């Protein structure tokens, strides 16, 4: 089946929040502030993680990748969203929609795997402290990061391509604020049951499997801390793992509602707001979560500001 001509020539209409014009004005401000926080916060994390010698550890190596994913993920969505929120024009070109679909799905999938990799790193830090440096050696860290990126690329090449090749018979009104697989397949004018099954299977592999690995890692961490029976160990484990657990809860708690049951009444009614949370809000909160609770990051920020001040003077 070839790609239909309408998918190549016609622009898509992103309905988004156009049925609530007063809400659009509020959302414009919220999205703009969140995007600026995302850019600044994640850029600072990348900067201090790559320049501060005390942060050249596996944890901050993966955190750098997470920050890069978040910057690119939101950038693939937010500029178009801001443009659509500020005026009556709600269209996106067919090429722009395809690029947005491929890039956002690749980065979202990469983040799913990356969060699981970071949970394994926390497991190694807490449960194998004496062998941590040997276990999480640079070669393994690079390989795990590579697996995360390649998984994202592989998933989007499959899911996005299949989605774009569905015939839409002129349907181009997308009831969403960006081009996302669950909403795109609803434009098809053929039976999409096979596509929904494929999406569900992909979601099991890239959402629920990493989530299961994360829960297993933290199960082992809890057992290790309980065996130690030390208040100090509990505090250290909470400090080591608390930020990551918060990020996992925010990201997985929202994205699974959209991808695991894309046709549920809940996902249909609140899907746009759920997607807004994991595409715009969560990437902005991640740097704050990792910096507010982390003494190492606070210390690195202090050293960075001191260096900048010394250079300025």
Automatic annotation (TrEMBL):
Q: Which residues cross the membrane?
A: 26-48, 60-81, 101-120, 140-158, 197-216, 237-261, 273-292
* Record SUPFAM superfamilies: Family A G protein-coupled receptor-like
CDD domains, sorted: 7tmA_OR2B-like
Per UniProt, the keywords (alphabetical) are:
Cell membrane, G-protein coupled receptor, Membrane, Olfaction, Receptor, Sensory transduction, Transducer, Transmembrane, Transmembrane helix
Indicate the segments forming the G-protein coupled receptors family 1 profile domain, all copies: 41-290
What membrane topology does the UniProt entry give?
Multi-pass membrane protein
This entry carries the following GO cellular component terms, namely: plasma membrane
Report whether Cell membrane shows up as a keyword of the record.
yes
Keyword Transferase applies:
no
- From the Swiss-Prot or TrEMBL record, state where the protein is found: Cell membrane
Q: Please, which domain of life does this record's source organism belong to?
A: Eukaryota
Concerning its family, UniProt says: Belongs to the G-protein coupled receptor 1 family.
What name is this protein filed under? Olfactory receptor
